[in-house]
Structure formats: structure tokens, C-alpha cells
Write a structure and sequence with these properties.
A two-stranded parallel ribbon has the order 1-2. The protein has one domain. α2 links the parallel β1 and β2. With 83 residues, it is α+β, with helices and mostly antiparallel strands. 43% of the residues lie in helices and 14% in strands.
Length: 83
């Protein structure tokens, strides 16, 4: 019984260490979101992003977020595409 408990603890510690190493080495998701628009809509897209960027950050239920900075949020930019 002690052997089972020891093996369970070792397996748990190994899994936690592997997860921590993966999180530390992984650069994370992309921090830039690109919105592809037609060339004639590029100015309107940039204007809309500027308006949205000046608004306060809120959660899904409308309460203000605690950090109140855009550092933790991904960057968004408009890109003209030719299809």
C-alpha cells in the first residue's frame, strides 16, 4: 500500500513538473490579431479600432476589469487584403 502511495505521489509530481516546464518554455499565443478587410474599408476599420481602444475594458457581465491596462490584452490591427 505504501508503494502505491509513493508511486502515485511520484507520478503526480512528474506531471506537475512537466506542466510547469511547458508553461515556462512556451512563448504563448500570438499577441497580435489581424483583421483582414478590403482596401477601401481599411480607414473605417482603423477608426473603429481606435474608438474601441479608447473604451474601458470590461468583463462579460459589464463590470470593469481590475488591471485597467491594455498590456495584458492582445494587439489588434487592420490589414488590407486583395482577393
Amino acid at each position: 500500500m505504501k508503494r502505491l502511495a509513493l508511486l502515485t505521489a511520484a507520478a503526480t509530481c512528474t506531471a506537475v513538473a512537466a506542466y510547469a516546464a511547458t508553461e515556462a518554455l512556451n512563448p504563448g499565443a500570438a499577441t497580435v490579431i489581424e483583421i483582414e478587410v478590403a482596401p477601401h474599408e481599411l480607414a473605417q476599420c482603423r477608426e473603429t479600432l481606435q474608438q474601441v481602444g479608447s473604451m474601458a475594458a470590461v468583463s462579460d457581465d459589464g463590470t470593469p476589469l481590475l488591471f485597467q491596462s491594455s498590456e495584458d490584452l492582445p494587439q489588434v490591427r487592420c490589414v488590407a487584403t486583395t482577393v
